[in-house]
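Hi P.,

Sorry for the delay on this. The queue was packed all week, but I finally got your sequence through. Input first:
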Amino acid sequence: MKLLRVAVLASGTGTNLASILAATQNGTLSARVVLVVSNKVEAGALEIARNSNVPALHLSREQFESPEDLDQAFLCAFKEQNVELIALAGYLKKISSSIIREYKHRMLNIHPALLPSFGGKGMYGIKIHQAVLDYGCKVSGVTVHLVDEDYDSGIPILQRCVPVEQDDRPKTLAARVLEQEHKIYVEALQLFAENKIEIRGRQVVIN
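Then the structure:
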């Protein structure tokens, strides 16, 4: 099987990147991570990439005269590596419309809640788990979705529930959700690698 060429964008420690790389190495994911990009020069994800001999690139707005120049740098990097699919893995910057158009239905994000609940601008990291607990939810979860022009509003591809325990705190809930993130993202990427995803309007068909 031809390996899907994936670029991973991350802003943080890179735990989802690490799980994706592990899956490509043990054969559970028919893909190859060909590029890792971060907006933070000291992001752990870049170090993971370098240690895995994956091209690692720091791109941020401060490096360029205009947002359009930044977009062009992204697109050039993707084309240079023949990127077929982009996976956002804890990437905290909004993707521009021009990049989304170029990779329509070929850009994924993972969100640590059951969208459309607890999504949108400003909902990331520990804030999400605190909001879930404050609301009194008995169940949280993970969503892998397509990226569109609005925060967390793209078509869901896969979702998985995670129970909220009686004595949970934001960090304990986050840890339980993260375990499922690592599994479900690989599963979603494998569906794309096997060409099993078909988008019909806002309907996802898994063939």
